[in-house]
Amino acid sequence: MADAVPPVPLYDRQDFALGFLALMPAGPVWPRERNAVLPQVAAALVRTYEQMTFRAAALLADAPMYTLNERLSEWEATLGLPDPCAGLAPTVELRRQGVAAAIAARGGQSIPYFTAIALLLGSVIEVEEFTPFQAGVSGAGNSCCGPGWAHVWWVGRHGSNPPMECTLRRYAPAHTRLEFVDLGEMARWDIGQWDVDTWAA
What we know:
Elements: H1 13-22, H2 37-45, H3 47-61, H4 72-79, H5 92-104, H6 111-120, E1 125-129, E2 152-157, H7 162-171, E3 177-182, H8 183-186
Parallel strand pairs: 2-3
Antiparallel strand pairs: 1-2
Helix pairs in contact: 1-2, 4-5, 5-6
């Protein structure tokens, strides 16, 4: 997303110069002609005000994370970023997503928690968990999952997103096993044909 223009007045050096001159006394020793010394001095002095105005507006644009620019490096230093999951040369957009995800990642093991983290990193996902087949509990048509499937969960996504996948693997509970599959393939997979220990069909 492109940087948003902050909805605040942005005054340039001409605006400040006119305001500066308007505050000066009137009279022959205070000429306002363009080639006079006073307007030229005013034009030189107000450059600082122009720079301060645009920097202040840029800070306002930094308020939402999706336009973070001025304070991006500061946020990264505070949160221990850039994240190794983002790769060696992450784009500005990827760095912004990393900041947003790091702020939101307060810890959790629920499906909504992981789907929210994935969304902040640019992916809409679906999570599927598995339960080993149990006589008297599982019904006809249920996949015959062995005990090894108790801690397996699949994440379905539309296309590969390495930073998101790396981040979810790092945040996943240590006793679980996480696998990524394409959403279009999830419904067609028969997990009864898969060996959870080797992942060989």
